[in-house]
């Protein structure tokens, strides 16, 4: 058993034994459950770690460049993220918390300013923002920068959408049926977002080159009309109108 109300899971080898382990966030008891993989493929809960209030999403990333995968958690109810640094043996240090926007819902890690350190991007569903936290040298993060997006953002992805070697962001806005694209300046800052219409209540977004033209397209899951929207890239900061597919 894990904790109460599991919401998100990540899989990685946390103790360097060449077996995939699991970390699960538990929304109602504000914990992360760590499940280490035994020799026979069975999973054993080894520890529950306290995080913020209402943990919603979790990722694993090496935040301090020590070749050990750490945990980062978005805490929906107290508008924070928790960073748990790994000891490399399946155990983690006590959380460090950072303030983000209201209703922190989803999180990704990307190097946004080309300094070879992994930064964080968080979508905040209650105040319609994205928080960017740039990484420092010493496993800490700078105070958030916030960027306005659409109404009710729930998911985000990062890719170079305009082929300028700078990482951009795509955000799915569930309450206004749009995708916001924030083009990166390469220094951790972003331009004012461009908005593209998709289906009814987009809750997840990803990217991929669907038509083999070396341009990254957008794929969006729309929960209220049971469709997937595909927006093909023009390669110049614009996308073609959506094509919707029933699922």
UniProtKB/TrEMBL annotation:
InterPro entries linked to this entry: FG-GAP (IPR013517), Integrin_alpha_N (IPR028994)
- Key words of the record: Signal
For whether the record's keyword set contains Signal, the answer is yes
Source organism superkingdom: Eukaryota
DNA-binding among the record's keywords? no
Q: What is this protein called?
A: VCBS repeat-containing protein
Which organism was this protein described from? Adineta steineri
């Amino acid at each position: 058993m894990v904790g109460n109300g599991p919401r998100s899971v990540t899989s990685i080898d946390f103790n360097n034994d060449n077996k995939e382990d699991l970390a699960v966030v538990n929304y109602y008891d504000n914990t992360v459950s760590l499940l280490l993989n035994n020799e026979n493929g069975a999973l054993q809960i080894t520890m529950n770690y306290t995080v913020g209030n209402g943990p919603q999403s979790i990722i694993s990333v090496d935040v301090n460049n020590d070749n050990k995968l750490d945990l980062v958690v978005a805490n929906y109810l107290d508008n924070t993220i928790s960073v748990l640094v790994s000891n490399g043996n399946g155990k983690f240090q006590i959380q460090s918390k950072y303030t983000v926007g209201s209703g922190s819902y989803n999180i990704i890690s990307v190097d946004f300013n080309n300094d070879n350190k992994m930064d964080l991007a968080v979508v905040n569903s209650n105040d319609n923002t994205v928080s960017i936290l740039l990484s420092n040298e010493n496993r800490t993060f700078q105070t958030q920068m916030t960027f306005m997006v659409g109404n009710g953002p729930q998911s985000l992805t990062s890719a170079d959408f305009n082929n300028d070697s700078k990482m951009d962001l795509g955000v799915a806005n569930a309450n206004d049926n749009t995708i916001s694209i924030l083009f990166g300046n390469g220094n951790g800052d972003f331009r004012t977002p461009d908005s593209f219409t998709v289906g009814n209540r987009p809750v997840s977004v990803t990217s991929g080159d669907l038509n083999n033209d070396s341009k990254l397209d957008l794929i969006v899951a729309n929960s209220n009309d049971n469709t997937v929207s595909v927006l093909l890239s023009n390669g110049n900061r614009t996308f073609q109108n959506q094509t919707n597919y029933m699922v």
